[in-house]
Amino acid sequence: HGLRIRWNTGSGMSRRQKLLELRQTAPHVLPSLLLCNFGNLNREIEQLDTAGVQALHLDVMDGNFVPNITYGMPIVAGLRGLTEMPLDVHLMMEGPERYVEQFHDAGADVLTIHIEAVPDPTATLRRIRDLGMAAGLALNPDTPLDSITPFLDECDLALVMSVQAGFGGQKFNPVALQKLSELKDAKPEHVLLEVDGGVNVETISQCAEAGADLLVVGSAIFKQNDYTEAVSQLHSLLHRG
Ligand code: DX5
Ligand code: ZN
32 C-alpha vs ligand 2 centroid, how far in Å? Predict the structure, then answer.
């Protein structure tokens, strides 16, 4: 898994083209910026880049949809200034339709909303795409898969939560594996599958085998002191089948 995508092509790859690049070279481990050292994001991004990650997963939490608060547009904009890598922004917020333009302006490449938190998924997903971003739809472990299947044509990505959104370091919920396998067969071909929560050396292979293209990892990277070691160990487990 040595291939490194050159994101800073200078020719200004479009935001959705970045996701196509990721699809072509999937599966990928995406570090989730929740448990990282926010006191030195520059160094964190440098270390993750050295570790060979190809995209970043940003966990935005509003204290309403989830009982936790993290960050918003200013941090996304700050990260945009640090890296050309795709910013995969996971909106864990009520009424995300209110902030689509602002996260676009902050530099999000992928914007993922929760089906449990949005009154009109189609309108919001279309708005995200109209602005040139890739549109993602997420569901929590207790939310049935058929809550998102009617909207998959409007999506570039489906985010299957393997923990209840809100915190890092939780235990992997295998219900995600069933959803991934069902989605792998049922989804429109272009939709990327992403899994998020409790993904580590014990669970990552099953996730890839169940069909995950993007595997979000928090504590299994940020709780280790050597990111390169952690990422390469996870990548070595990403064989398919
Ligand atoms: C939880 C977030 C996840 C979380 C993953 O609400 O969406 O991205 O940070 O962290 P781990 O890998 O520690 O479960
Ligand atoms: Zn997340």
Answer: 6
11 band by pLDDT with thresholds 50, 70 and 90: low
Q: Are the C-beta atoms of residues 115 and 137 closer than 8 Å to each other?
A: yes
Q: Which residues surround ligand 2, an ion (CB under 5 A)?
A: 59, 90, 196
When pLDDT is averaged across residues 64-69 and rounded to a whole number, the result is: 98
Neighbour-count burial for 123-148, b at 16+ CB within 10 Å, e otherwise: ebbebbbebebbbbbbbbbebebeeb
Q: How far is the CA of 170 from the centre of ligand 1 (A)?
A: 8
Q: What value does the mean pLDDT of the chain take?
A: 95
What's the Cα-to-Cα distance from 25 to each of 1, 5, 171, 214, 241, rounded to whole Å?
9, 9, 28, 10, 17
Is 146 a catalytic site residue?
no
Q: Give 169-188 pLDDT, tens digit per residue.
A: 999 999 999 999 999 999 99
Phi then psi for residue 31, to 5 deg, are -65, 140
Specify the pTM.
0.96
Is 176 near ligand 1, meaning CB less than 6 Å away?
no
pLDDT of residue 77: 98
CB 171 within 8 A of CB 198: yes
Ligand 1 centre from 211 Cα, in Å?
Answer: 19
Angle, in degrees to the nearest 10, between helices 227-236 and 41-50: 40
Q: Considering 49, 59, 88, 213, which one is annotated as catalytic?
A: 59
